[in-house]
Structures are given as C-alpha cells and as structure tokens.
Amino acid sequence: MGRHTTSSKSNKSFGREFLSYLIVILCAASISILFRIFLFEPFIVPSASMEPTLMVKDKLIVNKVSFKFSGIKRGDIIAFHSPVTEGKDLVKRAIAFEGETVKLGTDGVIYINGKPIDKDYYAGNAPPKYTGQTFKIGKNEIFVMGDNRDDSYDSRYFGPIDKNEVFGKVLMIYWPPSRIKLVK
C-alpha cells in the first residue's frame, strides 16, 4: 500500500508539472501570435527594387504599430499590399503624400510641388531616366518608389498607393547575419 501512495503522489506531481509546462507553452505561443498580428511581422524582400538598401531575400522585421502613431514620413521604407497583384506584398520608399504633385524630371530629378526633393535615395551611378511624368497625389494616397529605379515596379507604373494598404514600416534586417541592421 505504501508503494501505491508514493506512485500516486508521483503521478500527481508529474501531472501538475506537465500542466504547468503546458500552460507556459500555450502562453508563449499566444504572446508570439499576438505579437505578430499586432506589433511586428517578418517579411522577405521579393525583388531587387530596393537594392542596395534591401537585397533580394533579406529577411526584415516590419513594425506594424509605430507608423499609426507617428505617421509615415518622406523617405520611410514601407510594406504594403500590392495594388496590382492580390496576395502579394511589396516594400518601397515613401516619396510623396496627399495633396502633393510629383514630377519626374527628364534631368533625373524628382520634383515635389516644383522643388527638387531633398534626398531621393536613388542607388544608381548615372541619373535615372525619367520621362517627365507628373502625378497628383490624391486623398489618402502615397507615391512610392524603389531605390533601384532601373529595376523597380513602383508608383511610376501602378500609380500612388492607398494609405490603407500600408501594413507597416520596415524596422530592421535580421537575416542574413552579415546584414543585420536597423533600416533608415
């Protein structure tokens, strides 16, 4: 009878310990899921449009909260749902906003409301070849471009994006290890 009592106590102790581990695992999984849904999301760069700032297959952390409080600023790299391909997400740089007029000068300069942009983040050596296109940015819209202008499918082709399609601001590159850094 003494053995049975010890075994019974041992089983209860094991059951409690198992239950406590299960609770910890479920809490960690819940926090992780909530973290991803509401705060941060991993993202893999799908194309060369942002090179050399972001390279193809760089793994990023996208901050899904900060831009909702501080807004999106000119030069921010944002992640958004493609206005052309359902289910595809893109990353580009925010260039112009609601009420602004963007002119892509044949001299390779971006003009916003008639003034050259302070910094356009263009990554090439020779000036980009723009065709003189002009875009009026409408209500709740953002004009976006890739840093690698010669290889970027961006607002020059699909027009300004709806601000509601933006789901975050790129925070950092976390993979590969040689490229770990905060993104500006």
What attributes does this structure have?
184 residues; alpha+beta; Umud Fragment, subunit A; 2 domains; eight-stranded antiparallel beta sheet; four-stranded antiparallel beta sheet; elongated
Write up this protein.
- The protein contains three helices and twelve strands; from the N terminus they run H-E-E-H-E-E-E-E-E-E-E-H-E-E-E.
- It has 184 residues and is α+β, with helices and mostly antiparallel strands.
- It has two domains: 1-38; 41-182, Umud Fragment, subunit A (Ribbon).
- The strands form two sheets. Strands 1, 2, 3, 4, 9, 10, 11 and 12 form an eight-stranded antiparallel β-sheet that branches. Strands 7-6-5-8 form a four-stranded antiparallel β-sheet, with no helix packed on it.
- Strand 3 and strand 4 form a beta hairpin.
Brief overview:
By secondary structure, the protein is an alpha+beta fold. The protein contains 3 helices and 12 strands.
